[in-house]
Amino acid sequence: MSHPVIIQGGMGAGVSNWRLARNVSICGQMGVVSGTALDVILARRLQEGDPGGDLRRALGQFPIPGMAQRALERYFVPGGKAPSQPFKPVPLPSIQPGAALIELIVLANFVEVFLAKEGHSGLVGINYLEKIQLPTLPALFGAMLADVDYVLMGAGIPMAIPGILDHLSRGEAVRLRIDVEDAATGEEFFSAFDPATFCGATPPTLKRPLFLAIIASHVLAQALVRKATGHVDGFVVEGPTAGGHNAPPRGSSQLNERGEPVYGSRDVPDLEKISALGLPFWLAGSYATPARLAEALGCGAAGIQVGTAFAFCEESGITSDLKARVLDSSRRMDVDIFTDPMASPTGFPFKVVRMAGTVSEPPVYAARQRVCDLGYLRRAYRKADGTIGYRCPGEPEEQFFSKGGRPAETQGRKCVCNGLLSTIGLGQLQDGEYHEPALLTAGDDVKELARFLTPEREAYSAADVIRHLLQQA
């Protein structure tokens, strides 16, 4: 398999949707779907009536009879639900999820990859966050059932994933160690998935996708090559100007006058040491220009990963209103990006676009009632009786404190899960009164998006981005 020069970033929850990934792949580069919260996204898209029937067409190709029909019976609303009705909830992820949730996770990942790959022979990847561990095993299996070409994972140290891909490709049972706070010394907890049990028969042999670890340092690259459970096939080396979650600065934490983390020389990866590992790597974080692509290739990289430029193109999942407002701000050169050290419950710095009406505004943040009804960023913890509980610094404070959480952990925390779903137009109607406000993330490169616009055009396509990047190649 020849590697692409451009990897489209797997952004947000549903921002990098199948339409975007498919169009990038058709253009000869690697389209990537985001694997975050796909179970909820599928359930909510079905409740909106699946206009055009794409989801139902993909579900009709799912290879295990009965499962797709059960999901349709639970969530599909012909013609779509009324705007005044909330979305039907999906079970929250846990170490031992019920059969219905496992089925929905597998189905959702299958559907997104199937649609991204439909009708062409281009490369398609799927992006996951290591910090979101609980759905990982069934999610990987669903993507592999749809013949995904690459798996990308960041926001953590994905040591176990390469070996898990090996086992799943052979239809073997797998397990993943889950980070559990307050666990006793030497105590370990695992999630598990058995393809044979899921399929109810001998599971299929599947293609093992290539695995790319998203990293921020040569130290992590070296550790993954030495210690990962299977073969790491390459790296995406992501700098702190990229959107979404950023790796925290190395060393003692310092904030600038705006309250953002300060990155220094220790945070610059040694590309010579990464290159010496003999694996392909791509550079990410403000590389969306022909000059920076040439610079990356000159450093020995296989290419670049581009996120923000694709996030605001016509095919992405961000609502048209938010796209238009961001592009207008970019044209006026007044986009404000804030690297928020507190917003994400993960504790990772998180890039936030400051925009009126979104949760980035203090009054909007203060007015929102805390709720944790999606649960992807909940942390597992060991209760005194040895059982597992779940808590999130973004949930109601009294609930968090009752579970042993510390007050300082709740300060400034935002509900990334609900905010990101609102960004793609799938926000929940809470208590029949208000819709969840959006939380918009982008990289520093959002300030330069106006380069894709003209006086006659107020929008641009994924193909426009690719043509721009390759014009001097």
Low-confidence stretches: none
Widest beta sheet: strand line-up: 1-11-10-9-8-4-3-2
**Tally of separate helices:** 17
**Fraction of residues in helix:** 25-40%
Please tell me the overall pLDDT: 94
Shape category: globular
Q: And the CATH topology? A: TIM Barrel
Overall structural domain count: 1
Structural class: alpha/beta
Can you count the beta strands?
17
What kind of sheet is the major sheet?
Answer: 8 strands, parallel
How many whole angstroms does the radius of gyration measure?
21 Å
CATH architecture, by name, is: Alpha-Beta Barrel
End-to-end distance, in Å?
21 Å
Strand residue content? 5-15%
CATH top-level class = Alpha Beta
Structural description of this entry:
- This protein is α/β, with parallel strands linked by helices and 473 residues long.
- The protein has one domain (6-319, 450-470): TIM Barrel, CATH 3.20.20.
- 31% of the residues lie in helices and 14% in strands.
- It is built from 17 helices and 17 strands.
- An 8-stranded parallel sheet has the order 1-11-10-9-8-4-3-2.
- The radius of gyration is 21 Å and the shape is globular.
- The two termini are 21 Å apart.
- The mean pLDDT is 94.
